[in-house]
């Protein structure tokens, strides 16, 4: 029997096996060497696909996927076929044979042969039914309805104010009173919002306990006033004769610029909502949409940067800041720091877009791009300096992805990167993650050989607990403690205490933000392993960083 027939036979056997064990609506198997797939009859009929056997099914299927979801699907499939990823888990909308969009969850795995080459891609898909704009619990329109209405507003260029509201600590209510009462509270809240809103306002229930309001008439001042009243009222809210304490948080945004997408609006509203929830005790936070020095609105800027993630991360690049050994002052590594640039906006620093985008569902794509780029660059340096460590910052939303650890390990393997030359910096905001999840991720990465650093130590909450629980190799002292170290004895004391804590847990200390010799000498009195700061170098592009290393070794 020739190879071709043999491969077709395996395709059919795998397909039968998958169909047998899968409880999902549809199954598919693709031979990754020939790109021949087999899909089950139900899928072929329901979506009116060309046939059960298809070549290049990924491209055919992409043409059925909703245009807003297509890019994410195509990028994921590309990664599967390039070996960068080995699992697929996406939810998207697909057009059926009646022209309606249905929501499908698609999960799949890549099987490799004994030589480690990509062999088959097998998966199953669940059809959740027709995309519905209504929320059954409250009778309001749901998140899809909100996105559709945003599209209408953008198309018709209707100036309006957008509000996102939500209850925090709702889990307590469910735990204390049960889900039925929890649901009743949400129904009440929906009716209450309808009562206080203008008759022309549109109200939506987003995910979970969050609501959105679109209003064309109510001014920002009025919204602030009403919000404060509602917040007060919710502190002792009566449902079925019971007094329930609800904590409200919220954000608001004035929309007067229409050259943006609905997803960017959501991302910016959500960013301000998270600030309300995590930093402002529920005060209504307005999204800052002031023009910057280039006269471009913050919203437009975020929109442009967000869209470039989907455009193969165009405009993004990394700068590197050397990390030197505290005693020899020789380069031992570098921190990769993201930048974005285009001709209109110039170079944009991460502080302007990372905090907004890190809660956005495009961030994991950018995060993997950063990791890949940093490791590819670092490979060049590791050749000459096998101890060189590249440090990469992680964002909260990356760690939350169910495939995060597998994706990192697959990437390290596909690049042939030595894991101990990579250090992942867990930033302040990652600590909002469930500790159990974070420690599972950390232990797996650590046991694989990847180093871990705790970034911005001392600026947030629960720092000591995290040091105790997670196997950090490095603790980075935030610049905030170093800035005034020459004038303030307390800052020096803090540096001393952190070095003591780190050594108690077997971690090294890296001090950031050293700008001159005096600062350097102050921190060198303590058990500091490495130093980073403008005194040695600002972050520079990779070519400059290579020259920096060569100069140090006397090669330039
Ligand atoms: P970070 O991780 O604490 O990075 C160090 C920041 O301090 C960098 O700012 C660096 O340029 C700055 N810095 C270093 N030494 C000195 C100094 O001596 N003096 C002063 N004044 N500043 C110094 P940058 O590049 O603007 O990054 C800001 C933040 O953005 C980072 O803080 C990090 O939280 C985030 N970020 C940057 N790149 C990435 C990335 O690739 N992924 C993620 N998730 N976040 C990133
Ligand atoms: Ca960092
Ligand atoms: Ca830092």
From TrEMBL:
Query: Which residues belong to any copy of the GGDEF domain?
Result: 158-289
Q: Which GO terms describe its molecular function?
A: cyclic-guanylate-specific phosphodiesterase activity
**InterPro entries linked to this entry:** Cyclic-di-GMP_PDE-like, EAL_dom, EAL_sf, GGDEF_dom, Nucleotide_cyclase, PAS, PAS-like_dom_sf, PAS_fold_3
Give start and end of each EAL domain. Answer: 298-553
Record-linked Pfam families: EAL, GGDEF, PAS_3
Q: Which domain of life is it from?
A: Bacteria
| Transmembrane portions of the chain | none
Q: What is this protein called?
A: Diguanylate cyclase (GGDEF) domain-containing protein
Organism (species): Succinivibrio dextrinosolvens
């Amino acid at each position: 029997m020739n190879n071709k027939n043999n491969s077709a036979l395996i395709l059919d056997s795998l397909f039968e096996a998958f169909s047998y064990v899968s409880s999902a609506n549809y199954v598919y198997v693709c031979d990754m060497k020939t790109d021949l797939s087999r899909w089950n009859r139900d899928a072929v009929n329901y979506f009116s696909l060309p046939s059960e056997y298809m070549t290049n099914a990924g491209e055919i299927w992409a043409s059925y996927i909703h245009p807003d979801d297509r890019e994410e699907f195509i990028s994921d499939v590309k990664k599967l076929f390039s070996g960068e990823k080995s699992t697929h888990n996406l939810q998207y909308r697909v057009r059926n044979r009646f022209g309606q969009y249905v929501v499908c969850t698609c999960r799949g795995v890549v099987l490799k042969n004994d030589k480690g080459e990509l062999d088959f891609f097998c998966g199953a898909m669940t059809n959740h039914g027709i995309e519905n704009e209504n929320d059954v619990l409250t009778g309001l329109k749901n998140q899809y309805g909100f996105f559709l209405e945003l599209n209408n507003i953008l198309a018709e260029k209707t100036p309006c104010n957008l509000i996102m509201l939500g209850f925090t600590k709702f889990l307590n209510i469910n735990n204390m009173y049960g889900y039925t009462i929890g649901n009743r509270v949400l129904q009440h809240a929906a009716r209450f919002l309808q009562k206080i809103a203008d008759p022309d306002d549109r109200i939506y229930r987003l995910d979970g306990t969050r609501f959105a309001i679109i209003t064309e008439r109510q001014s920002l001042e009025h919204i602030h006033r009403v919000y404060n009243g509602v917040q007060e009222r919710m502190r002792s809210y009566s449902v079925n004769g019971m007094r329930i304490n609800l904590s409200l948080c919220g954000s608001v945004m004035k929309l007067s610029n229409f050259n943006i997408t609905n997803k960017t609006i959501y991302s910016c509203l959500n960013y301000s909502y998270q600030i309300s929830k995590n930093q402002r005790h529920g005060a209504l936070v307005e999204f800052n949409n002031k023009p910057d020095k280039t006269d471009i609105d913050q919203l437009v800027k975020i929109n442009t940067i967000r869209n470039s993630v989907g455009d193969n991360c165009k405009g993004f690049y990394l700068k590197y800041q050397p990390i030197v050994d505290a005693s020899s002052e020789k380069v031992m590594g570098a921190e990769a720091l993201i930048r974005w640039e285009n001709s209109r906006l110039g170079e944009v620093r991460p502080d302007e877009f990372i905090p907004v985008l890190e809660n956005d569902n495009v961030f994991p794509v950018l995060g993997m791009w950063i990791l890949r780029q940093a490791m590819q660059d670092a490979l060049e340096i590791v050749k000459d300096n096998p101890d060189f460590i590249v440090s990469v910052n992680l964002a909260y939303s990356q760690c939350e992805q169910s495939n995060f650890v597998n994706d990192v390990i697959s990437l390290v393997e596909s690049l042939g990167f030595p894991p101990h030359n990579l250090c992942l910096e867990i930033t302040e905001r990652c600590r909002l993650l469930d500790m159990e999840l974070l420690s599972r991720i950390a232990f797996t990465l650590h046991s694989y050989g990847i180093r871990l650093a705790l970034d911005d130590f001392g600026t947030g909450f629960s720092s000591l607990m995290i040091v105790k629980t997670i196997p950090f190799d490095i603790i980075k002292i935030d610049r905030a403690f170093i800035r005034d170290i020459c004038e303030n004895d307390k800052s020096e004391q803090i540096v001393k205490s952190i070095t003591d804590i780190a050594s108690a847990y077997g971690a090294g200390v890296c001090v950031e933000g050293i700008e001159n010799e005096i600062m350097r000498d102050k921190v060198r009195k303590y058990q500091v392993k490495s130093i980073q700061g403008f005194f040695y170098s600002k972050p520079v592009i990779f070519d400059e960083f290579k020259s920096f290393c060569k100069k140090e070794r006397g090669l330039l």
